[in-house]
Amino acid sequence: MQDVEKTEIQSQTSSKRRRRRNRFRPLYGLLVAILVIGVGVSLSMTVFFNIEQIVVAGDADQPYQKNDVVKASGVHTGDNMMRLNRETVKENILSRLIFVDSVSIQKDFPDRLVITIEPSKAAFNVTDSSGTLQVSAAGKILVSGPDSDPSLPTITGFEASVREPGKTLTSRDSQKDKIFQSLSERIAKGLDCPVTSIDLADKYNINLIFDGRVSFQLGNWSDMDYKITLAETVLGQLSPDKVGYLSMVGDHQCSYRDKEAVEQQTTAPLQTTATDEYGNPVTETDEYGNLVTTETQTETTTTAAGWQ
């Protein structure tokens, strides 16, 4: 009888132990998983995925040698890929290499890093009383000096607040930064008739010169892409030797005036006739009683300002 009671007690105790073990089994599994992950992360940050090869890619016509790019990046063979911050590498290259416009960083696991650079190319002259800045389409200042590049469109009235090569072009008027960006993006898409100069002195009445011969007053910078496309449509209907003026008429029309017609002087005779206090013509006579002929005066008016 005692043996039976002992067996029942042992059975109950074993059952409780099994239930207790089963209750803590998920916790044990979680702890093991955390331990394994921790070891894996630690190894990947130290032993595994270390850089053995750095590749510099991009256009064939690069302004810098591979070693220059790698040195500017601050990355070395043996550095860990997992710990590498892409944005830091990009900023290092962009700030240290003036003639680089954009950078992309690709981690090619397990041990290869690819740096792709897009070289900067001068796209505009930005001219003021202090000199000329040659800037890329992205607005990076490449050259600061007294001379312009005659092959590039020239921007006046921008009010540049930064002149140091390598920095981003910035205006004292923040709206002009947005205008520059919009114009640059539109011109980068390609134009049938090239823009040769841009006047931003009055941001509410922006003026473009197409091909050095047609002045386009497009008003403010709203819907700039549409306005330039509309102007191109009109220019496409003109002979390539036309010289004149384009202006917006309302929001959806563009008017062209020929330079010669606009600047043509018109002469109109003005008859001057003496009248009495009631507005009746007065017949004048000389001292001998002869009629005096009324003089004709001439006034010359110009319909538009001269071409600049």
Automatic annotation (TrEMBL):
It is found in: Membrane. InterPro entries: FtsQ_DivIB, POTRA, POTRA_FtsQ_type. Residues 264-275 have a biased composition (Low complexity). GO terms for cellular component: plasma membrane. The keyword Transcription regulation does not apply. The keyword Membrane applies. Residues 49-120 form the POTRA domain. The chain crosses the membrane at residues 27-49. Keywords: Cell cycle, Cell division, Cell membrane, Membrane, Transmembrane, Transmembrane helix. Residues 264-285 are annotated as: Disordered. PROSITE patterns: POTRA. One of its GO terms (biological process) is cell division. It comes from the Bacteria. Pfam families: POTRA_1. This is POTRA domain protein, FtsQ-type. It comes from Ruminococcus callidus ATCC 27760.
